[in-house]
Amino acid sequence: MAQEESAGSARDGTHRPRSFVHQDSDEHSPDTGADQLPAVIARLPKNADEEVRVTLDEYRGHHLVDVRIFADFTAANVPMPTKKGISIRVGQLPDLIEALRDAETRARQLGLLHEEA
């Protein structure tokens, strides 16, 4: 079941944007591995028409983390993936997380990000 976090501290002590939606892993079957893919990890609103989705998936035998913009281009109001985004191998995820933490630290040092964000 998806749950919405409000601004401020989440249960895990991290800060999340006001409309961050986390996809709970217990929505999936008890099986493990690739049979549960794709798995939407998070949806973050970008603007009124777009959202950023973080997804675990597999393509041609490679397990990937996909961070992509989804936009509503359909008459049925169903968000569709765009070309805007990145896919990296899951093995690169720790390096990406470290780089994002470094970016957060530097943004705070530069006064671009404040404690409430």
Key traits:
two-stranded antiparallel sheet, 6-stranded antiparallel beta sheet, Transcriptional Co-activator pc4, Chain A, disordered N terminus, mainly beta, 117 residues
Describe this protein's structure.
The chain has 117 residues and is mainly beta. The strands form 2 sheets. The chain has a 6-stranded antiparallel beta sheet, with no helix packed on it. It has a two-stranded antiparallel ribbon with strand order 2-3. It has one helix at residues 93-109, and strands at 2-4, 8-9, 15-16, 21-23, 39-45, 50-59, 62-72, 79-89. Strand 5 (39-45) and strand 6 form a beta hairpin. The protein contains 1 helix and 8 strands. Helices cover 15% and strands 42% of the residues. Residues 1-18 and 25-30 have low confidence and may be disordered. It has a single domain (2-90), classed as Transcriptional Co-activator pc4, Chain A (Roll). The two termini are 25 Å apart. It is globular.
Structural class: mainly beta
> Strand portion, in percent?
35-45%
What does the main sheet amount to? 6 strands, antiparallel
Tell me the count of domains: 1
Find the CATH topology: Transcriptional Co-activator pc4, Chain A
* Strand neighbour order, sheet with most strands: 1-4-5-6-7-8
